[in-house]
Design goal:
Elements (H helix, E strand, L loop, with lengths): L8 H9 L3 E5 L2 H14 L2 E6 L10 E14 L3 E6 L9 E4 H12 L9 E6 L22 E13 L4 E5 L21 E2 L3 H16 L5 E11 L4 H11 L4 E7 L2 E7 L2 E6 L2 E5 L1 E6 L5 H13 L1 H19 L8 E10 L3 E11 L6 H8 L7 E2 L1 H12 L9 E6 L3 E5 L4 E5 L2 E10 L5 H11 L1 H7 L4
Antiparallel strand pairs: 1-8, 2-3, 2-11, 3-4, 3-7, 4-5, 6-7, 6-19, 7-8, 9-10, 10-18, 10-22, 11-12, 12-21, 13-14, 13-20, 14-17, 15-17, 16-17, 19-20, 21-22
Helix pairs in contact: 5-11
InterPro entries: ADC_synthase (IPR005801), Anth_synth_I-like (IPR019999), Chorismate_C (IPR015890)
Organism: Sulfidibacter corallicola
Pfam family, one: Chorismate_bind
């Protein structure tokens, strides 16, 4: 069936929504291995993996199944590549506003358990008018955003050990997109410690001039590995299990994430954001030093001030699309511990205002304030000038949007991009007026430690 308009996809979605449900009890390891094996053998796919202790934020993992279409988004348009139809040879391009309206309609269709879902991969440059489109791009020509439309969603309940999915028919898929070469750049860290320290000084100059209060500066690493992305992911999952991990595959380009951070969660009209701001290193083999590091995080005036600024920023972002009086801080400045770092975390909630839609919500909170700084716009403008290249998926987002009123997006930190043997990842941190250059440089390395260990990179 040729796809002449977005509405033509609805026929395919309705068919997939009636496929029979299957429920089976399997182990978590078996679910993850099943998902990784499928990703290895398909040119497109997504796994959203909740790892670590089972809890309210890490109970369910999802996998895109029965892919129906890909949407490639640029600034003003979206191009549809449908699978298994005549449209695979003649893509359909529509205005971004038309696509946004279609997504909003899809979001309320109510296809039920394990039904169709959208899996977006948003680069930092998506919805971001403050980025120069001519910046060098080290991450292999990904568009601003990719949206994978899946006919089914495999849903794994970690607490119950229960997998819910639908019988998946064979679906013809288009060939992988042509490989694109990364921007030529030397391997290793983009800046030396001295060069990074100079950029910190420039950020602090802007702070002293009153342009902003805090900015999240990052540095990029390029390297090579013989490991396939799924092997790296298995190691990363063992080393640093996190609640918002996952993989996204677009042809030969993979995004491998060990993210601990949620950007925004939507359940009906209920909204929640969980910003991370504040980091101290772990000392896993020295309990006394580890406890001291955690105590330093809890009592540091610098870390607390930085955290408070970013909580206020997220309250403002959610407030732009929330009903009056509904935004509140549910948890403030609690410590979460991961394999290599301790973090300060808060929880902010609200209720979506009448008349606000999904794209309004995404535009209000994206990119996350914890990876830009405050005020957000002034920080993004300065970061573009200092970093001098596109971030790509780093500090962007992936997640899912279903037809039952649910959306959940992470922030792509602790994340690498791999194409063939070449890998790219970033480490960053919030710079404030009294930041210590040596400590900030070390923090960027600490945040990349699990990735570097999984890749067996010493740098």
């Amino acid at each position: 069936m040729p796809i002449e308009a977005l509405a033509d996809l609805d026929v395919l979605l309705q068919r997939r929504a009636t496929d029979p449900l299957i429920r089976e009890r399997i182990s978590e390891d078996a679910f993850v291995e099943r998902a990784l094996t499928e990703l290895e053998h398909r040119p497109y796919g997504c796994l959203l993996d909740s790892a670590g202790p089972v809890g309210a934020r890490a109970r369910t993992s999802l996998q895109a199944e029965a892919p129906l279409a890909l949407f490639y988004q640029d600034t003003n348009h979206v191009t549809l590549h449908a699978f298994g139809t005549a449209a695979r040879d003649r893509p359909l391009t529509v205005p971004l506003s038309e696509f946004a309206a279609w997504v909003e309609d899809f979001h309320g269709r109510g296809y039920g358990d394990a039904g169709p879902a959208l899996f977006p991969l948003l680069t930092y440059e998506a919805f971001n008018p403050y980025v120069n489109p001519s910046l060098p791009h080290p991450t292999w020509g990904l568009p601003e955003a990719v949206w994978l439309l899946a006919g089914h969603t495999a849903v794994y309940d970690r607490e119950a050990g229960l997998l819910t999915r639908r019988h998946t028919p064979e679906t013809a898929e288009p060939p992988a997109p042509p490989a694109t070469e990364p921007t030529a750049a030397p391997l290793g860290w983009r800046e030396s410690e001295i060069e990074y320290g100079e950029k910190i000084r420039q950020v602090q100059h802007h702070i002293f001039e009153g342009n902003f209060y805090q900015a999240n500066l990052s540095q990029r690493f390029l390297g090579e590995t013989p490991q396939p992305p799924t092997a790296t992911y298995r190691l990363l999952r063992d080393l640093n299990p996190s609640p918002f991990m996952g993989l996204f595959r677009i042809g030969e380009t993979w995004v491998v994430s060990g993210s601990p951070e949620r950007l925004v969660d939507k359940r009906g009209a209920y909204l929640s954001a969980r910003p991370i701001a504040g980091t101290k290193p772990r000392f896993a083999h020295d309990a006394q030093a580890d406890a001291a590091s955690r105590h330093d995080l809890c009592t540091s005036e610098k870390e607390r001030a930085e955290h408070l600024m970013l909580v206020d920023l997220l309250r403002n972002d959610l407030g732009r699309v929330s009903a009056p009086g509904t935004v509140r801080v549910e948890e403030f400045s609690v410590v979460e511990t991961y394999s290599h770092v301790h973090h300060l975390v808060s929880q902010i909630v609200g209720e979506l205002a009448d008349g606000a839609d999904l794209f309004d919500l995404i535009a209000a909170v994206f990119p996350g304030g914890t990876i830009t700084g405050a005020p957000k716009i002034a920080c993004m403008q300065t970061l573009v000038a200092l970093e001098r290249e596109a971030r790509g998926p780093y500090t962007g987002s992936f997640g899912y949007i279903d037809s039952n009123g649910h959306m959940d997006l992470n922030i792509l930190i602790r994340t690498m991009i791999q194409h063939g043997r070449r890998v790219c990842f970033h480490g960053g941190g919030g710079i404030v007026a009294d930041s210590c250059h040596d400590a900030e440089y070390l923090e960027t390395r600490q945040k990349c430690a699990a990735l570097m260990e999984a890749l067996n990179i010493r740098a």
